[in-house]
Amino acid sequence: MKKIKKRIDLSVIVPVYNVEAYLPECIDSLLQQHDICLEIILIDDGSTDQSGTIVDQYAGKDKRIKVIHQQNGGASAARNAGLDIAQGEYIVFIDSDDWVKENSLCKLYHEAIRYQADMVMGSITCHEPNRLSKGLCKPVPKELLYIPFDGKEGFIHLAKAGVYTFMVCICYRSIFLKKIQARFEEGIMYEDELWTPAVLCQAAKLVITDIEFYYYRQNEESVMHTTSLFRRLDSLFRVTDRLIAFADNYDFSGKDRELKSRLYVNIFKLYARTFDLLACVKDTSYTLPDYHLDRFWRDCREMTLEPQKICKRYFHHAEKELKKYTDWVVSGWVASIASQMNAGQKLMLIYNVLPDEDLTLKVEDVPTGWLITTDRRYLQQADAVVFHLPSLYQVCENDLDKQEGQVWISWYLESEKEDSWVENPEIDVFDHWICYRQDESQQEHPLVRLCRKLAGDETDNNNKRIALTVDDLPFVALSADDETKEGMEITSLLLQHLKLHEVHVTAFVNGGTTDREETMLNAVTKWHSDGHLLANHTYSHPALSHISSDDFEKDVIRNEKILAPFLKNDSQKYFRFPYLDYGNSPEQTENAMAFLHRRSYTVVPVTLDSKDYVFNAIYTDALNNNQNMVDKYLEYIQKIVEFREQQAMHFFGRFLGQIMLIHANRINALYLGRVITLLKQQGYEFVSLQEVINEPIYKKGGATINSMQLMSWESQSSDGKPVKISCPNVPREILEAYNK
Question: Which residues of 543-559 are buried (b: 16+ CB within 10 A; e: fewer)?
Answer without folding.
Answer: bbeebebeebbebbeeb
